[in-house]
Fold this protein.
Amino acid sequence: MMQSKWRMPAGAASSALLLALCIQRTVSFQTQSSLAIPTRLHPQTSPITRAAANIPLFASSSNDVDDDNNTKETKNDDGPDLLQPYLPAIDPKYSVKGPIGEGKFTISRSGPPTAAELSNEQMLQIVKIQCSDLEVNTLVWKCLGYRFHEETWSPTEVFPKWKERFPDPPDFIGMQRVYSREVDVPSLRSNQALVRSVPQDNKQSLKTHLKPLGWTGYQYKELTPNKTRRAQCANWLIFYREELFGYTVEELKERRRLKKEAETVEAKRLEEEEGEKSDEWKLPVKEVY
């Protein structure tokens, strides 16, 4: 099992325990039967996380990660497996101090993204939850243009449109894994913005690139916020790798212009051949650049 070396400051630990108690009181909709549902323990489990295991919505198993740091699938016919709240992520310094790159997932905070970090094997680890939430976030941040300098993330090379809305790197996953409205809305909104930046033609990148590696996707009944957001981040990363990686903003804008011109010419040709104007509707895309 991946052992986290992260240690929370005393003040953050107190806040974490207070949050755990709040969660225990607010999750009133959970049925009694859910207490028996076995859940998957994330590889980045810490003693503080285990201390919060009595929260009603979550139940843990101590034997859910194999010797190769791979998270085991826990079969559950009644609903999805839910991950425990990860309380060290409450610390504001977790994004710059939390451990990354200690397992099989290739990632570093320094420099721009690399081809090795964007491989299909990396994407497979993301969707199979074989890397931490922080590692997924870190890779997306680097691809968007955030750069790590002197223990802080700065929008040094962030795409202009994205930088206007998110000058600081957002949490796309919800690293705390607390899904109350007060805690989770910022993560949800940033993830939705990332998804909207992917063109329709690239929405199924996961299926195209990971199916040859044996990944067939999640079953509907096993979907959780964590799995859904990981899949969306992985899909965006593949889109970035295939369409944006290695280009300047000016080059991307020129490619976009040429693509629109080609689409206009093709639409006009089809209209002349078929004698009617195409009314095909495409999902609006809010590009990051």
DSSP finds ten helices and two strands in the chain. The first helix runs from residue 10 to 26.
